[in-house]
Amino acid sequence: ETVNLNELFNYILNRFEMMLKNEDSPHHQKHYQIERDFTDKDLWVEIDTDRFTQVVDNLMNNAIKYSPDGGIITCRLLETHNQVIMSISDQGLGIPRKDLTHIFDRFYRVDKARSRAQGGTGLGLAISKEVIQMLGGRIWVDSTEGKGSTFYISLPFEQFEEDDWDVE
Ligand code: ATP
Ligand code: MG
C-alpha cells in the first residue's frame, strides 16, 4: 500500500514516547528522549505497514536497550533525488568494528553476556534486513564503540512529477 512515511514514523515514535510513562513498558525505567528532524515534504512510499513498523520497532527497541544511560535518540527523515532516507541515532554502547559486518546475521549478538541480560534472540536485524530488501531498499549502520550508533534505511521513492500533458 502507499503510505505517508512522515505520518507513520511520527505515529511509531509517539508510541515510544508513551512507553516512558507506561509502567508496564519494558522501557519505563529508561531516561531516553526522542528528537525528530523530519523534512516538511510528505514522502509517500510503497510498503507493507505492519512489516515496516516491525523494522522500526526493532531499531527503536535496540536504541533503547543498548543505551544503558538513556540519552537522546535522534530520528531523521529526508529525501535525496530518488530515495527516502530514515535514520535512528542513539548515544549508547556502540558496536565494535569487528562486529559491524555481522550484526545483520541471524542470531548474531555482540557480547553474549551483555546481550543475554537484555533479552532477545538476535533475529531482529536479520528480519529487518529481509523486509527492507524485499521493499527494494537498504539498511546499514554506522557506529563508534562507546559513543553510539546510527542505523539507516533507504527506500526507493517515486517522485510524483507534474503530468506533462501535450495540449494540442
Ligand atoms: P531481538 O531483536 O531478536 O530481540 P537483539 O536485539 O539482540 O534481539 P538484533 O536486533 O538483531 O537482536 O541485534 C543484534 C545485535 O546487535 C544485538 O544483540 C546487539 O549486540 C547489537 N546491536 C543492535 N542494535 C544496537 C545498538 N543500537 N547499539 C548497540 N548494539 C546494538
Ligand atoms: Mg533487537
Task: Kindly describe this structure.
The structure is a single chain. This protein is 30% helix and 27% strand. The protein is α+β, with helices and mostly antiparallel strands and 168 residues long. The chain has helices spanning 5-19, 49-65, 112-118, 124-134; strands at residues 2-4, 32-38, 44-46, 71-79, 83-89, 138-144, 148-156. Strands 2-4-5-7-6 form a five-stranded mixed beta sheet. The protein is globular. The structure holds adenosine-5'-triphosphate and magnesium ion. It comes from Furfurilactobacillus curtus. This is histidine kinase.
Give, in spatial order, the strands making up the sheet with the most strands: 2-4-5-7-6
How many helices?
4
Compute the average pLDDT: 91
N-C termini distance = 35 Å
Q: Sketch the topology as an H/E string, one letter per element.
A: EHEEHEEHHEE
Percent of sequence in beta strands: 25-35%
Which structural class best describes the helix and strand composition?
alpha+beta
Extract low-pLDDT stretches: none
- Identify the overall geometry: globular
The radius of gyration over CA amounts to: 17 Å
The helicity comes to 25-40%
Largest beta sheet, briefly?
Answer: 5 strands, mixed
Q: Please give the number of β-strands.
A: 7
**Which small compounds were modeled alongside the protein?**
adenosine-5'-triphosphate, magnesium ion
Quick take:
By secondary structure, this protein is of the alpha+beta class.
Main attributes of the structure:
single chain; 168 residues; alpha+beta; 5-stranded mixed sheet; globular; binds adenosine-5'-triphosphate; binds magnesium ion; histidine kinase
